[in-house]
Amino acid sequence: xxxEYGVTINTPLxxxxxxxxxxxxxxPLTHNNKAWTQTFNIPLPPDYExxxxxxxxxxxxxxxxxxxxAYFTYDVGGITGGQTGLRSSSKKTKNGNINGxxxxxxxxxxxxxxxxxxxxxxxxxFVVTCKLKASKFSEWQTNAYNQLVAAYNxxxxxxxGGQTTGDDQPFESGENDRRTPPALNRITEQRELKRxxxxxxxxxxxxxxxxxxxxxxxxxDKYDIPCIVQNEAFDQYASQVKFxxxxxxxxxxxxxxxxxxxxxxxxxxxxxxxxxxxxxxxxFKQSGMARVVVPVRPEFNEAVTYYLETGDxxxxxxxxxxxxxxxxxxxxxxxxxxxxxxEEEWDVRVPTTLSIVQNKNARLDEEGLPCCARVEDSEYTxxxxxxxxxxxxxx
Length: 395
Known about the structure:
- The protein is an alpha+beta fold.
- 23% of the residues lie in helices and 31% in strands.
């Protein structure tokens, strides 16, 4: 496709290279009781970093009588090995292999250190496998993209008579114009606040958060598959996860961020300079403290209270406090105890749509509600209801 735009893109560097080097004593060894150390370096190709090392070694030794033990050890970029505690009344030869993955990213060179005693000579041959730096491959991608975009814009400009919108600009490494949607920022805020709250609830009772309950099992000597370790520790941790995820209504979380000056003074400058297009997310990034309110599910009220008192997780059944103190009264028992006594009973009339408004409208022995004024004389009774008047003839 690059040829269609008249662009020639350089071939990317190889993803992997190997470097091998042989070692022998420099200067030659003298067989005696003194310990010695010799250092070397394995140079690495530019733009690459060391990944693994393999190889072999061999040495000759002799240690007998009152002489100290013989030994030979190596250190290749932090990967160590060798053989120690050797004794023999005659000259002998020992061999060994090395295989390992570097824990530290070595660039430019890998240091090699040999240590020994009571040796006549030694030899070693190490092969270092190097990987291309991720930054170099990203740089190649960026350059290739910029070349293609520039060629594309030139063709568009040519076909449109020199008029371009300017929307298609080469991508420069390190720029990022994408904005995170506010909804995703709210998810990030709530997730981090939730994590901090669970930590504050679990640490006082020495409960761990973030356990590794799986192990890697090798498949066909090709790759590792993570497998869950199902044991008692897993069951207990699963119960803890279930309790804290279900006992609180996290979706109803309310929170307020307090300013940077409640954090460590050493972090004030960094927090104050944190910026974001989302003002709420900026307050989150600059906050020194936060106030968070999360309701407890009604059915978990007693379980949460029991946990805060004892540190034990209760997931069902009757609450039974384990204590030998006769004077102990749990919070649950105190909450379930009714305060006060009932001295007498009385009837309560509940409002209903069947209430009698006027006692003359039904043949019931009830007075009805006082909803109107009554004016009486010797011949008739006048009921005044609102703006109207109703006459009722006396019998």
